[in-house]
């Protein structure tokens, strides 16, 4: 196993170059890479580029899944450039933080599943972006945490509570400690842990599995999952029924049923029984 990366110093400088790269594959998967060395900090220009990329991709109806990662193995993203906050107060500070909230919501509300491939450090705003993804794949050597108390602030708490529960969230928030990929998986913070250097490949494989499913149903499932947590059980069941009724007459559904029956027929004729 590779050694854990050295702990970064919070805050980085935004270099004058393109910081967000988008690649597509034939399966309908997009890989969005944050590229702002050395720690992929989300300075304003980077956030603007990332939001623009997400907005453009959200309008692409051929897209089936999205992988979000950081360039290299040192960091997914170490969060904000703290120098940007210096001197801000009142409404200016509120507007600055609302820019961040728009980024988190762009990830959480993206129309297809978003998989965070966490290859190294995920801290501050980078940690929150990771939390906003639908699925998280982390390297064993990745390090992450809700560390805002270290600088006298709060962040990440609502999504963290929803993901790992209040008890574990209290542990992470009050200790402001880092956890590696293995511990993060054990507490349900990430869905899959892989050897160092394999996070992106594993995330792409997972995205490929999603991309192979009927795309309209995947989009509706994502929308449903985003709403049911705020509804009563009866309301959620009613919303699911309406979604089911919407999907049932679609070509996606009928084609998927035909393919399923064809596969079952082949299995039965070969003696596999299913």
TrEMBL record:
One of its GO terms (biological process) is fatty acid beta-oxidation. PROSITE patterns: ENOYL_COA_HYDRATASE. The keyword Chaperone does not apply. InterPro entries: ClpP/crotonase-like_dom_sf, Enoyl-CoA_hyd/isom_CS, Enoyl-CoA_hydra/iso. This is Enoyl-CoA hydratase. Belongs to the enoyl-CoA hydratase/isomerase family. It comes from the Bacteria. One of its GO terms (molecular function) is lyase activity. The keyword Lipid metabolism applies. It comes from Caldinitratiruptor microaerophilus. Keywords: Lipid metabolism, Lyase.
């Amino acid at each position: 196993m590779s050694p854990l990366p050295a702990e970064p110093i919070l805050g980085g400088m935004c270099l004058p170059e393109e910081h967000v790269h988008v690649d597509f594959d034939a399966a309908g998967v997009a890989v969005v890479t944050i590229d702002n060395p050395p720690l992929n900090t989300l300075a304003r220009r980077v956030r603007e580029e990332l939001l623009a990329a997400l907005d453009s991709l959200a309008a692409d109806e051929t897209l089936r899944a999205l992988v979000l990662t950081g360039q290299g193995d040192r960091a997914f993203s170490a969060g904000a450039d703290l120098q940007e906050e210096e001197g801000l107060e009142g409404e200016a500070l509120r507007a600055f933080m609302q820019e961040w909230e728009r980024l988190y919501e762009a990830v959480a509300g993206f129309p297809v599943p978003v998989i965070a491939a966490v290859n190294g450090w995920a801290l501050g705003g980078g940690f929150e972006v990771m939390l906003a993804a639908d699925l998280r794949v982390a390297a064993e050597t990745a390090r992450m945490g809700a560390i805002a108390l270290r600088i006298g602030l709060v962040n990440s708490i609502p999504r963290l509570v929803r993901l790992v529960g209040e008890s574990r969230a209290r542990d992470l928030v009050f200790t402001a400690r880092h956890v590696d990929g293995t511990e993060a998986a054990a507490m349900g913070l990430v869905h899959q842990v892989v050897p160092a250097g394999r996070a992106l490949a594993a995330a792409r494989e997972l995205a490929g599995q999603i991309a192979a499913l009927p795309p309209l149903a995947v989009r509706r499932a994502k929308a449903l999952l985003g709403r049911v947590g705020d509804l009563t059980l009866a309301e959620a069941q009613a919303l699911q029924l309406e979604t089911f009724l919407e999907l049932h007459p679609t070509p996606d559904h009928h084609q998927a049923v035909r393919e399923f029956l064809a596969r079952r027929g082949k299995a039965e004729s070969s003696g596999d029984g299913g």
